[in-house]
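User: Here's a chain of 523 residues. Predict its fold as tokens.
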Amino acid sequence: MPGFLTGTNSSTGRDRSLNGTGSIHYAYGSKYVFDFTLRAEGMTKFGSGNKWGFFPGVSARWNISDEAFFKPYRKYVNMLSFRPSWGINGNAWFADGLIYNKYSSYGYYDGVQGIAPENLRLTRIRWEKSKSWNLGFDLHLFDDLLMFDLSVYKRYTTDLLMSGVKIPSSTGYSDVANANVGKMENRGWEFNVSTKPIFKMGKFDVRLRANIAQSLNTVTEMDPTVLSSMNQQFDNSNAKYLSRVQLGHALGGIYGFRYKGVYAYDYDHNGYFANPERNNYIDAAGKPNTAAATGKTAPIAYGADGKILYDKSGNPQPMYFNYGGKNYRFEGGDVIYEDVNHDGQIDELDIVYLGSSNPKFNGGFGIDFRYGQWTLKTNFNFRVGNKIVNMARMNAEMMRSNDNQVASVNWRWRKNGDITPIPRAKNSRAGDSFNALASDRYVEKGDFLRFQYLQLGYSVKPEQLKRWGLSQLTMSVSANNLIFWTKYSGVDPEHGASGFSPAFDNSQTPRSRSITFSLNFGF
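Assistant: Prediction complete.
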């Protein structure tokens, strides 16, 4: 099908950068090593007084195992070292030209074309700097049969850069391209272990390797205006989760209501009315059919002491969703949200912290087998302690539109007395429904173990290749992303927090599975 251009545009730009690095290395025998580096970098994208950044770094190594006093232990410990380091890194990822105004045509005055600036000049933007320290330890045992590596670190970032920063409209603009908005702290550790060939039996041996790590972040300071613009008010619509930045807490936090099930009865079938005649409901078998008689749930309010709240007429107070102009009374088959402050209303005061999208631990391990010329390599990775908002499941169970829904909606609430975790169906055209508000109903654990890599290889002996003029010939077949184990109900549990938002599963395409055949040879 023929195509053609509908428009073109072009632009020019010019920027300059200059950097230099100096270093000093000092070693005393094999025991002490010291390094100092200093990097200076200047960029024209910064305003006057902020163009240059200076980034020093210091590191040292003490090989304790080479000390004379350690000689009695060398039979078992062939390497023990301590590696401290400290340094500053700079970041300047924003675009060039922000220190200048850009002008464009803007209206007419007395028949003359006017011009106006499109942006505010950013002459005070500064380098984002990260100061960090690291303490490393190395331990090798039994002639490197077992090798351990531990690193503990802390990084403190100042003048944190952010794009699209909202500013007061009184300036004539809604936002600026970039700004320095706050400070953040990251701390964590990583532990690695590996082995030389072990479990040797003839031509057979095994190698092991593993690592585990933890990384935590904390927002320590942020411009109040920026913080206010990022922390939006609660949206009373379905399927809307808050993205919040809380000082003293990590990014990736999830906030919403606590899901407590589905109301088995409507308000009229609660069975606690002052007038006994209003409590006379009987099922098909002739048994009382009220929440009071069966011990099931109904949309009535309870106090902090667990007792029913009554109105002045002696009747139970109904539960309401009361926020943003909505005054919806919950009915049978609606979702039960925890009334945290026990006021008989579900609103923004009942929103709580539901967990973090940051894992408590992540890592991996592998086992390599060798038998003669054959090798079998494996690699697994895992993640523990993170939570995911399963938006894919929410949209497939919402029952608010004519879109396809998952099979679980067949177990939805249909009549008074039904016990089910799936609320009633109510199309948006039939009226309001708040059964898919942000809650822990769709917040799931993202723990998983993935069989990431498998490779089977065979190397032909060199003496068998001489007649062909080859020095090396290796054949292998490998597979990636073979299988994973998880309790997460979505397609793939490997989702991470993005920017200032938690981890959302919006039906992204799952990771592909691949098989590769390789043939490597050398002359």
